[in-house]
């Protein structure tokens, strides 16, 4: 995968992770939640859908050929959120605070920063140019 494809993949992971875990701010208390705890309110099916999106994020992350320890931690985060998230109401509260997708994004970015600093630099310059409107 060339650098531009890797950047597109990384940005897709960033967007999905933030959409699922931190897309909305709750007024008054400032807590950020995403679609994950909201979707999880649908009994049974909601947690499966949220886990499917998390699995897709893992699939995208696997393209970076992560070390087993990093990828295993990411799988553990998603599995933990799935198991505890399946508990009615308590699981939805857990989903709102645990944020497995954002945790996994942080693991991926930390690995990339150490293993592929050029990709991280390209990512920062791309996001700066996008923010400036270029």
Characterization of the model:
- The protein has 134 residues and is mainly α.
- It has one domain.
- Helix content is 75%, strand content 3%.
- Strands 1-2 form a two-stranded antiparallel ribbon.
- β1 and β2 form a beta hairpin.
- α1 runs antiparallel to α3.
- It is globular, with a radius of gyration of 16 Å.
Condensed summary:
With 134 residues, the chain is an all-alpha fold. The protein is 75% helix and 3% strand. It has one domain.
Which key phrases capture this entry?
134 residues; mainly alpha; two-stranded antiparallel ribbon; 7 helices; 75% helix; globular
What's the helix and strand layout?
Layout: H1 3-21, E1 24-25, E2 32-33, H2 35-39, H3 45-62, H4 68-85, H5 90-98, H6 100-115, H7 117-132
Antiparallel strand pairs: 1-2
Helix pairs in contact: 1-3, 1-6, 3-4, 3-6, 4-5, 4-6, 6-7
Transmembrane segments: 38-62, 74-98
InterPro entries: DUF4112
Organism: Vasconcelosia minhoensis LEGE 07310
């Amino acid at each position: 995968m060339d650098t531009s494809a890797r950047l597109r993949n990384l940005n897709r992971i960033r967007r999905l992770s933030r959409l699922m875990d931190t897309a909305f701010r709750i007024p008054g208390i400032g807590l950020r939640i995403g679609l994950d705890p909201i979707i999880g309110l649908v009994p049974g099916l909601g947690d499966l859908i949220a886990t499917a999106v998390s699995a897709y994020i893992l699939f995208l992350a696997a393209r970076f050929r992560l070390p087993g320890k990093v990828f295993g931690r990411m799988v553990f985060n998603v599995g933990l959120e799935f198991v505890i998230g399946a508990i009615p109401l308590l699981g939805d509260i857990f989903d709102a605070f645990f944020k497995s997708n954002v945790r996994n994004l942080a693991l991926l970015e930390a690995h990339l920063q150490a293993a592929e600093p050029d990709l991280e630099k390209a990512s920062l310059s791309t996001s700066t140019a996008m923010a400036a409107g270029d």
